[in-house]
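I hope you will forgive my troubling you with a question about protein structure. You will find the record immediately after this paragraph.
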Amino acid sequence: MSHIVNNSGNQEHYTPRRFTDSARYVMGSIDLDPASNEVANEWIGASPYYTIENQGLDKEWSGNVWINPPFASKSLKPLVDKLVKSNIEPL
């Protein structure tokens, strides 16, 4: 049985900029964010980035991928499966 505390139902939980800046410093760039939105991409700076509207699951993933998926939804497993199948090397 799952236990969720203080779940507002909001799927948008943005990664603090200090973490994305650190990731960009280590990786050199963030080339793709397949689980994003316009607000988050203002500081992620990925090109391209995919949203719930233009779904990245049917597109090729390459380069330095940043992913902060909506963990409390059915979209988590497909995103993780796609990441594994993309043969992208983790840092």
